[in-house]
Design goal:
The complex is a heterodimer of chains A (321) and B (405). By secondary structure, chain A is mostly helical. Chain A is built from 14 helices and no strands. The chains are: A mainly alpha (321), B alpha/beta (405). At the A-B interface, α9, α10 and α14 of A face α3 and α4 of B.
Chain lengths: 321, 405
């Protein structure tokens, strides 16, 4: 098992290296660079333009004067030590500081949203599965379908309007207090709630039709024992494979909601970095997301193996070779 | 006269559809569609899986239920087990008495009971106390009948832990025995073994060994996927026998297994039966197995009983053309014929049973009367009954006179 884990870790390192090379290469090929866009922007609203000398100094400051390969090598060496240097647009901040400040916010947001989705979605799914094809089930399925098809930003607007403006229960903007988390989490968790509910219902219905559930009933198991001890575990295993990637993508995909509520999270920086050609920041954030997605997948596989003995065995035998 | 364990009387199990539901009142066979009455259930809408099944089973007796696929054998026993019970799309009527206790009226859908919801729940609880403890069942497919993510040991001892009464009693007995033999020290030394979980585990281990699983200690903590089909069926048997049931229902226990394993499995069941005097209902396609194993036999076809009697009578002189067909299609060792004689045709559609004898369409000795009227029960010798006009004697003339006159 441990061997397998190490092997997967090795693959992740390799994949991150390839992704960094690809991203770097693509950014080199992309037209325009930060200083030129700044120059044009400045020209458009003030008479004072960036002189050639100033530009050259900036270039030197950021190390843009060196050849691309050398810059990539420098980047790699620094990145291994978790140093990404200054950001172009926020030249007084180092990227590692930006990430250290913003990533926890985004991650916390995504994590709470998933937690809410699980806490609400799994019981809803169970209820729907138990009352299969009855009215309650139909209602739950309909709600979950609506939930998973309404985009998070629409939900964010609806939340702001009703909870913030009409009912005045929650602040529409601001950051720092727990109450500021509530609306973004509602907006973010709605989609996952729908997905989790649908998944739980589907797999539980399937599991309840299995022969071993009949056997458990024949053994004299009551409703609780049969449903929760025998069926639920088997039906939640597939759910894990959905939740992990969902968490990773949610950390990345909070851009809209972060913008809407002016949350100082990573998503905002990611978006503005790409627009402003802030290459060091783009590189750093891309790599972080890549690592998160792959890390989540690894975690999912580990949990999967922990829950399903069949997977455990297949992993150990494969990993042992 | 031996003690009667199980008595099934005129059991009917019908399945409706989502669209056509049975009426809310018990025993009502009216059909509703979207709340509107659609009259009595007629052909085409309802599957009449079991139609008037009756038998009694004494302690230590083994009964075989044979018949083609889809003749209602499995549904019949699953109704007895309470795994199939009345609901909006299922209707069960008749009487099942287990050791003097009416089982069918304990299983009622809470909805059906209406105002007496609470009452129904209590009755279901009572039935649960019997299921898995006094009646247990071995299922057909060992590959899918075990929970894949639970250690087999835990699955085996579950019936014991779910019905604590017997276990408590046994632990008390063991305590007394220890106290008498070795005094308080012995009791102290064995304190761990007397815990419910450990006690059940010891029983499970013993049983695993009895059903022929080598090194039960390690196997106890294995998962089902680490077992072969035959081994899993042994586990299933251990699971069914751990509660020392009075009645064991084996629903085609050897169908999924190869012949040598079949023999082993059957001999295990036979051994257990001899020792504990368990009554057995064996459902099978295999007449050879049934004849070596069982005292009595019921032949079912299209949900109905065709012939019933002692195994010896049945093998020596099968009266019903269907039984004769079944016996003819059984291979005999040393038989030189190139092809077995099969019964022509297919069993009828259970949604659309013909009036009269259900076998009439395939029967080589079919008379005109057979297609019109269901045959009455005729006793050939005590205990050997057949449902066929051929054996009905003067009843045929009476009936024909009735129709003509």
């Amino acid at each position: 098992m441990f061997k397998y884990f190490l092997k997967r870790l090795g693959y992740i390192v390799l994949a991150v290296f390839i992704i960094s090379a690809l991203t770097f290469g693509l950014l080199q090929l992309a037209p325009g660079n930060y200083l030129d866009t700044q120059r044009i922007l400045q020209q458009s609203y003030s008479s004072a333009t960036m002189s050639d000398q100033m530009r050259a100094e900036w270039e030197k400051f950021y190390g843009m004067d060196k050849p691309a390969l050398q810059r990539y090598a420098d980047f790699l060496i620094n990145a291994v030590q978790l140093k990404f240097g200054p950001s172009y647009q926020y030249s007084n901040q180092r990227i590692e500081d930006i990430i250290a400040r913003t990533l926890p916010i985004s991650a916390r947001l995504a994590f709470s949203a998933i937690l809410v989705a699980l806490v609400i979605g799994i019981p809803l799914g169970i209820i729907a599965a138990i009352r299969q094809n009855k009215i309650l089930d139909r209602v739950v399925v309909l709600i979950s379908m609506i939930g998973s098809s309404v985009p998070a930003y629409v939900m964010a607007i609806a939340c702001t309007y009703f909870l913030g403006l009409k009912l005045k229960w929650l602040p529409t903007i601001g950051w720092g207090e727990p109450k500021h988390y509530i609306m973004p989490i509602i907006a973010l968790s709605l989609g996952p709630i729908g997905t989790v509910t649908k998944y739980t219902r589907g797999t539980l219905v399937e599991t309840l039709n299995q022969e071993y559930i009949r056997v458990a009933r024949a053994k004299g198991g009551d409703f609780i024992r049969v449903t929760f001890k025998h069926a639920l575990r088997n039906s939640l295993i597939p759910l894990i494979t959905v939740v992990g990637p969902m968490l990773a993508s949610l950390t990345v995909g909070t851009v809209f909601v972060e913008n809407m509520y002016a949350i100082p999270g990573l998503g905002q920086y990611y978006a503005s970095a790409a627009v402003n050609r802030d290459y060091p920041l783009v590189m750093a954030t891309t790599l972080i997301f890549a690592i998160m997605v792959m890390g989540m997948n690894l975690l999912v596989d580990m949990v999967h193996a922990f829950l399903d003995p069949r997977v455990r065995v297949s992993l150990t035998t494969k990993g042992g070779k | 006269m031996a003690e009667t364990i199980l008595e099934v009387n005129d059991l009917h199990t019908w399945f409706g559809k989502k669209k056509y539901r049975f009426g809310k009142r018990k025993g009502e066979f009216k059909v509703y569609r979207f709340g509107k009455e659609k009259g009595q259930y007629k052909g085409g809408k309802v599957i009449r899986a079991v139609e008037g099944l009756s038998y009694t089973l004494n302690r230590g007796e083994a009964l075989a239920i044979v018949g083609e696929s889809g003749s209602g054998k499995s549904v019949g026993v699953s109704t007895v087990m309470g795994l199939t019970h009345s609901g909006p799309t299922t209707r069960v009527t008749g009487r099942v008495t287990f050791k003097g206790q009416d089982l069918l009226n304990t299983v009622s859908d809470p909805k059906e009971a209406g105002l007496f919801k609470k009452h129904a729940a209590i009755r279901e609880k009572e039935f649960r106390a019997i299921r898995g403890d006094q009646i247990s069942m071995i299922f057909q497919d060992p590959m899918s009948s075990l929970n894949p993510t639970m250690k087999i040991g835990r699955q085996i001892v579950e019936p014991l832990l779910w019905h604590k009464g017997k276990l408590r009693q046994e632990i008390q007995d063991e305590k007394k025995r220890l106290l008498n033999e070795g005094g308080k020290e012995a009791l102290k030394a064995h304190r761990k073994d007397l815990r419910m979980r450990n006690f059940a585990r010891a029983r499970g281990l013993k049983l695993l060994e009895e059903v022929g699983i080598p090194s039960p200690e390690t196997r106890f903590n294995n998962y089902p996927f680490e077992f072969s089909g035959g081994m899993r069926q042994r586990v299933m048997i251990a699971m069914a026998l751990i509660g020392d049931p009075d009645l064991l229902i084996a629903d085609e226990p050897t169908t999924a297994l190869d012949v040598t394993v079949q023999a082993q499995i059957l001999s295990i069941i036979q051994k257990m039966r001899k020792r504990k005097n368990t009554s057995i209902i064996l459902i099978t396609h295999d007449l050879a197995v049934a004849s070596s194993f069982c005292d009595r036999v019921i032949v079912m076809y299209a949900g109905r009983v065709m012939e019933e009697g002692s195994m010896a009578d049945f093998i020596r002189c099968p009266a019903h053309p269907y039984s004769q067909g079944l016996l003819n299609s059984t291979p005999i060792l040393g038989d030189e014929r190139a092809r077995l004689e099969a019964i022509q045709g297919q069993p009828p559609d259970p949604r659309n049973l013909p009036s009269g004898c259900p076998f009439s369409a395939r029967c080589t000795k079919c008379m005109e009367l057979c297609t019109r009227e269901a045959p009455p029960k005729t006793q050939l010798t005590p205990g050997h009954n057949v449902y066929c006009w051929l054996c009905a004697g003067e009843k045929v003339q009476e009936k024909e006179a009735d129709i003509n006159g």
